[in-house]
Fold this protein.
Amino acid sequence: MGEDGVATPNGRPVLGTLLDPSGDTQARELSLALARSAGAPVRFLSPLRAPDTQCATAAPANGPPVRIASTETAEQAGQSAAAVVCEEAAEVDADVITVERPPSESPGAGIRRGTTDRIVANSPVDTVVANGCGELDDLASILVPVAGGPHTELTVRVARALAAHTDAWIELFTVVPKNPSAERRSGGAEHLAAARRFLDGFESFDTWLYEADDPATAIAEQSTYYDAIVMGAPTKGRLERMVFGSTPDSVDESVDIPVVTATSK
């Protein structure tokens, strides 16, 4: 049991990173949803400037216990914001880091990494990144593209937590080529079956095997019918993404709803 009498799995908190402590509503909602789902505490950290305590600690009456990390700012410590966050995650043995990408940062594999991408690259634990577009506190439906990648379990875990937090419906979605072979269709069905197992008893969901030549275009087109997208992070290296692009990057750049990207370690 935690200090407030709330059960915490291995005492591991969700580390909510507030790059903009006066905003970052997506980061706070993600943190609260994941902590509530796991019965864990939330630890908010603002590595760039001190947060508004009342704003940062706002939580539902029946929500998880919240803490403000007492860490020097990156400027005071002479460290980058990303280094401060990653060190804090290691020190408190965080379960996952949540962060909201600032408007000044673009998604994708640019020549220079922004703070968000440096956090993801150097984090010792799982990371969940929101794109800063829209809100995550009033969702009715969540599109969850899956393709059997290494981040599937975390992706579904995040979607399930958000859906339970907002009473939303989940659509597990996988794309196969048009007129697929029996083998490709079977592979797509297996991706959906594997993702479904990670829902862990969550019942408000459906599955969709969708035929299209380009997964990113298909996801973007279907996004108009949903309130948010939760998907796994790119599995390509930075250079390959710069040259050929990636599905998560393309989706994030093409839609105008919240996109949450999960990276498991």
